[in-house]
Amino acid sequence: MYAESNHLKFQVENLEVFYDDFRALKNVTLPIKCNNITSIIGPSGCGKSTFLRAFNRMNDLIPNVSTHGIVAKDNKDIINIDIVDLRKSVGMIFQRPNPFPKSIFDNVAYGPRAHGIKSMVELEDIVEKSLKQAILWEEVKDTLDKSALALSGGQQQRLCIARALAVNPDVLLMDEPASALDPIATLKIEDLIQELKGHVTIIIVTHNMQQAARASDFTAFFNMDEDRAGYLVEYGETEKVFTFPEKKITEDYISGRFG
Amino acid sequence: MIIDQAQSSITKAKNKRNLKRQNTFQTLGYILVWICGITAVAVVFWIIGYVLSQGLQVINLEFLTTRPAGGVSGEGGMSTTIVTTLYLVVLTIVIATPLGVGAAVYLVEYAGDASRESKVVAFLVKAARIGVEILAGVPSIIFGLFGFALFVSYMKLGFSLLSASLSGAALILPTIIRTSEEALLTVPRSYREGSLSLGATKWHTIFNVVLPTAIPGIVTGIVLGIGRIIAETAIFWVTLGGSYFLPKSIMNSGRSMALHVYMLASETRAFDKAMGTASILIIIIILLNLAINIISRRLTARVSGKR
Questions:
Q1: Residue A164 in 3-state DSSP?
Q2: CA–CA separation, B170 and B88 (whole Å)
Q3: Band of residue A38 on the pLDDT scale cut at 50, 70, 90
Q4: Which of A45, A225, B254, B275 is buried deepest, with most CB atoms within 10 A?
Q5: Taking the domain A8-254, which CATH number applies?
């Protein structure tokens, strides 16, 4: 079953997320296929980020958030997975690059160190491998001890990807990873996402229709209901969703008639 | 048409007059704040200048290297008071820093969650916050009386470096807690999320990302505390005693520089030596301020990546 490339990495069943009494997400049921790229699209405020943050339980950090329903990773409810192990295997890339105010090396080595790796040889190995995977190695290999904050925005975002890859995750969550970047840096991130596909399962929230259309295998379209709760409108292969959407509202959104 | 033109020329004249009046006010205001600024600076320079001009006359190598000898004529130098001040500062900071920074970490990182879980904790946290605010404004002699009652007599620590440092620590704790709290609050949430998303624990996140980023602010608080300890008199008069011998252990009494100035001025005829000691005190505080500037600029540069 695991040999199959499109077995399910996640199964989401009847997921609901509340902020106090406010229902931000309602009744989301969705499969996430292994080692594919799934993009989440939809208008602002439809709960895309909330949905994404349910996969590594980042919502738990916000006071008064409660989550109902099931998110299962590899057929195991993530509530039953130790949070450290869960977050180690489910990396996250944020909207704005957020490297730590440390050297490039220390940024990438941060995760492995947090998980107890002390040997410098081993760390150097991981850092080099991760930076190469994130296509950043050539640009920074001579300046590993320089502050990460001196890098450009695009480089910082790739550094964050390297930092996430350093703990060997099998899933990467990306919350509009290119929205704060210029077009060239955006293209580099997109290329990188394509490179990573096949090794990791990627779920990417994006505002950019073209990005979703060219970069992803599957697309889920979310919308906001009248009570402002986000819900899943349509899910399917990206090509199908973009060319023959089942619902009228998906077509309207994709063609730019609202949102 | 003609009437219109006439009216417009009237408004023009009016505008011109208004403009002139505004300009006059501008100039007046400028002169006023300029005078205020100059006066304030002049007073400070006058005080420092006066003390230095009086004090520097008695300062020589002998004055700096011999200990006070007591007596109504204030014999001797000031050597032991410099060393005692140093001891006092180091010991106080060693006690106050972990307590203060730890309390700030609790208030910023943990108190919120804990308060939501229990009403008792919420009440205690609120009380602690208000307590810190109030303590920051309490006169130092009150801390001195408290230290005298608790450390000197009840705990039988006597007039000693230890009693003085414990009381001094209580005095500067509010400052350290507040500045550390503010420094921790300026650490962006994205740093914490970045660390947690890598599977790091909360503790690891605080120790390896949050605290290092907040260091410049925390150091500022500590240095403010150092300045306070160097400058305070009353609190140490009732906890440190006033012995002019060099303390051999933390259980010995001693005399800090500020205390020495006070004692020389109030109990001896050696007003010139009080001025001399005061000069050294002022010079040290000026140097300390320069050091803060350099240190905090360096640390900030390191944290913000400009190096």
A1: helix
A2: 13
A3: very high
A4: B254
A5: 3.40.50.300
Q: Is B213 exposed, middle or buried (0-12, 13-18, 19+ CB in 10 A)?
A: buried
CA dihedral B296, B301, B303, B307 (to 10 degrees): -140
Residues B284, B278 contacting (CB under 8 angstroms):
no
Torsion of CA B301, A183, A232, A73, to 10 degrees: -60
What are the backbone dihedrals phi and psi of residue A216, each rounded to the nearest 5 degrees, phi first? Answer: -115, 160
Spans of all domains in chain A: 8-254
Collapsed DSSP state (helix, strand, coil) of residue A119: coil
**What integer pLDDT is reported at residue A5 of this predicted model?**
45
Interval A86-126: pLDDT, tens: 999 999 999 999 999 999 999 999 999 999 999 999 999 99
Report the predicted TM-score, pTM, of the whole model to 2 decimal places.
0.83
Q: Hey, what are B31's tokens?
A: 């002169």
Rounded average pLDDT over A145-150: 91
Q: Do A114 and B195 touch (CB under 8 A)?
A: yes
> B128-143: per-residue pLDDT in tens?
999 999 998 899 999 9
Chain B positions in Cβ-Cβ contact with residue A107 (cut-off 8 Å): none
pLDDT tier at B76, thresholds 50, 70, 90:
confident
Chain B hits for A146, CB-CB cut-off 8 Å, are 307
pLDDT at residue number A6: 54
The alpha carbon of residue B128 is apart from the nearest alpha carbon of chain A, in Å, by: 22
Question: What is the rounded distance in angstroms from the CA atom of residue B19 to the CA atom of residue B27?
Answer: 12
Nearest C-alpha in B relative to A149: B305
What is the arithmetic mean of pLDDT over B278-303?
A: 85
Asked if the interface predicted TM-score (ipTM) of this complex is over 0.85, the answer is: yes
d(CA A223, CA A47): 8
For residue A56, list chain B residues with Cβ-Cβ distance below 8 A. Answer: 197
pLDDT at B104 over 70: yes
Site of tokens 């160190």: A113
Residue B63 is encoded by which pair of tokens? 């004055």
Q: Do B191 and A111 touch (CB under 8 A)?
A: no
Name the residue among A58, A100, A115 with its Cβ closest to that of B191.
A100
Question: CB contacts < 8 Å between A and B, how many?
Answer: 84
Q: Which helix (H) or strand (E) holds A3?
A: none
Per the model's pLDDT, the better-predicted residue between B296 and B6 turns out to be B296
CA distance A61 to chain B (A): 9
Average the pLDDT over B10-33 and give the result.
86
Kind of pairing, strands A218-224 and A37-41? parallel
What would the mean pLDDT of B177-195 be, rounded to a whole number?
Answer: 94
B126 C-beta neighbours (distance < 10 Å), count: 12
